[in-house]
Amino acid sequence: MDINTIRQETRGLKDGKIFLNNAGSSLMPDLVTDAMVDYLKLEEFSGGYHVADVNADILEEFYDETAKLVNAGPSNMAFATSATEAYSKALSSIIFKEGDVIITTADDYISNQITFISLQKKIGVKIIRMKNLPDHELDLEDLQRLIREHHPKLIAVTHIPTNSGLIQNVEAVGKMCREHDILYLVDACQSVGQMVVDVEKIGCDFLTATGRKFLRGPRGTGFLFVSDRVLEQDYAPLLLDMRGADCTGYNDYELFRTAKRFEHWEFSYASMLGLKHAVRYANNIGMDMVEKYNRELSRKLRENLKNYGFNVWDWGNRLSSIVTFSGPDGDLENIRKVLKENNVYFSVTYKNSALIDFTKKDINGIVRLSPHYFNTIEEIEKVSEILKASLK
Ligand SMILES: Cc1ncc(COP(=O)(O)O)c(C=O)c1O
């Protein structure tokens, strides 16, 4: 992995900023924006339909690249306009009845929790959150018990929560789902692009991702993986359109066989092309290399922050490239001010985005720094020094 070249290929890094908000919305490699702009210019001259026809093969490569990224087949992949859209469509394909049980975790993404609560209010599904062990790992014995007692219709786990560095043991949960033949939905929004994500190893039926974060794609993009198991059983979004099925009679349709049935007919092809290039860029570097390097960056950052007296809020045995912390006295605002003044990109999350987790931790919010493979150890040291100096 040649970090100098990677940095040279990213115009957004050339003004000297230290960009540490990859869990928010990262910087696209130049070739991503260039491909999108070129494609839009073609649309400007010939209209979108003509350009899509001429570029059909190039657009189709989106499915190959995303499949390669997560170790699936191209027919298992669908484009989405966001992780949330992918998640909603996956959920909508499951016909819930009153009393059906969804098992999730206390650390699942807040919008997913809101969706489950909506299903609870509208349909009467029951939400159960599995317990954590004292070291914050998922309590898998408790999960076994919950499965035996409640026969859940769905288990849903967020691989890496938005508000902490935790990496959930999605593989162990997947093993149980397969043993008990339970539908398994994994939100990999924060893990794709920053670490190896392998749907075979995870054993999931659905996996959702966004483009703009660690994948370094454009906004308004994402993807959904759908397993063969689920496709063969004719799972499809509740509200289908002609991208998903062929209308075969006045009152009938036939589902298309691939995961494209989870797409809607209209979306931005320039954006899909941009995401294809971003995913190809990641595939070419190699996710194992990215994961290893990111682990080093985040380990160093956490170590420095702890040494300087900051509260680091990442609980769990395996930690990701999301580093969350506050000042020694819980301060967020001074840190925010200092990072801004020094041209460091970061984000701040408050309790309403992570209600259960932050209640347990007894905090109102965190500052989040999320380094990625284009960052250098020198940048990590510099930011650490800036933060250390802010304590004086
Ligand atoms: C863990 C997780 N899941 C899902 C999402 C939603 O992604 P999107 O905004 O692309 O729908 C986010 C966004 O921050 C996230 O962090």
UniProtKB/TrEMBL annotation:
Domain of life of the native organism: Bacteria
Entries under InterPro entries matching the protein: Aminotrans_V_dom, Aminotrans_V_PyrdxlP_BS, PyrdxlP-dep_Trfase, PyrdxlP-dep_Trfase_major, PyrdxlP-dep_Trfase_small
Cofactor(s) of this protein: pyridoxal 5'-phosphate
PROSITE patterns assigned to the protein according to its UniProt record, in alphabetical order: AA_TRANSFER_CLASS_5 (PS00595)
An annotated Gene Ontology molecular function: transaminase activity
Alphabetical UniProt keywords: Aminotransferase, Pyridoxal phosphate, Transferase
Similarity field: Belongs to the class-V pyridoxal-phosphate-dependent aminotransferase family.
Descriptive protein name: Aminotransferase class V
Lineage per the UniProt record: Bacteria, Pseudomonadati, Bacteroidota, Flavobacteriia, Flavobacteriales
